[in-house]
Amino acid sequence: MSDLQQTLKQLQDTLTVVIGIQARQAEIAKGHSQWLEEQQTAIIRHEQAVARHDQIMAEIDDKLNGLIGFMDGQFRKPE
């Protein structure tokens, strides 16, 4: 095998390896993109749940304050 043929063989082998690496990197990038999208969706759902929780807690606070005011009026000693 001549030096030129040997060099061509090495270049072909190198090209085969590079193509394999690129394919693997593309697969990894796709998987990462899907993971990132799932994380962003989870963050949005979490933020919505926190907002709903805050709303419910505010409603409970209003009801408790109303109840406290009512009970305070019921049990206040006449002056």
Describe the structure using short key phrases.
mainly alpha, 79 residues
Characterization of this structure:
The protein is mostly helical. It has one domain (1-79). Helix content is 92%, strand content 0%. The protein has one helix at 3-75. It is rod-shaped and about 115 Å long. The mean pLDDT is 94.
**What is the terminal separation in angstroms?**
115 Å
Strand content: under 5%
Question: What is the tally of helical segments?
Answer: 1
Please indicate the count of domains. 1
State Rg.
34 Å
The count of DSSP E runs of length 2 or more, i.e. the number of strands, is 0
Described by the principal axes of the CA atoms, the overall outline is: rod-shaped
Which blocks of ≥5 consecutive residues have pLDDT under 50? none
Proportion in helices: over 70%
Helices and strands, in N-to-C order? H
Overall mean pLDDT: 94
Class by alpha and beta content: mainly alpha
Largest sheet: none
